[in-house]
Amino acid sequence: MKNPTWHRDEIILALDLYFRMDSSKMTSSHPDIIELSELLNRLPIHDVRPDEVKFRNPNGVNLKLNNFKAFDPSYTGAGMQNYGRLDKKVFEEFESDTKRLHKIANRIREVSSDLDLANKLYLIREIEDEEKFEVKEGAVIYKLHKYRERNTKIIKKKKETEFQRMGKLPCEACMFDFYQKYGSLGYKYIECHHRTPLSEFSSTTRTSLDDLALVCSNCHRMLHRKVDELSVEGLRSILSA
Ligand SMILES: [Zn+2]
Ligand SMILES: [Zn+2]
Asked: Which of 58, 89, 102, 157 has its CA 20 to 30 A from that of 95?
């Protein structure tokens, strides 16, 4: 009955607190540690928690923070030697850019504090695709992106508007047209991709029609493989190269 190992998003939140805390004050009764424990319990990532009571409890959170000492060059005391590979990787990714770490952590925190939204994000599978790829801005924000671009009301509106304007719905990146290829089966079929970069995504992001791009399923997959950096225009120029 072991709880799932720590996800990158969880490590980001822990590391952000680690850099903000006095290392001599890291104990399981510290209010900031307790607050982080509560936050991790709301985070829409692990829905399977074999040991619900112990799941990210203050003891475990405190241990996690103290584990960072093992590879923190600025820590002079004796460090724990019991850390995970991902802990070290995330530490190395952010040790010289704690500002970016704090920005990402705050965004994850903000999304997770909206309980209604967090509950909806639980239902979005982080990686439904056949292969795993890393989202630098965090899985919670990626889930929010997916959730926003599945808003059926605005997607319908977007498709209707574009169909009225053009009389067809071609992919904005490769021009593929489902109706042309599949006949009536593909009539008015196309997917929607949210253009807002993940680094600017937040729980208050409201989707306008201009935020959405119409793309075919292949191009949508490709965009998501580099969802942190690739724009629809960027993909279009890859295709025309
Ligand atoms: Zn396409
Ligand atoms: Zn998308």
From this structure: 58
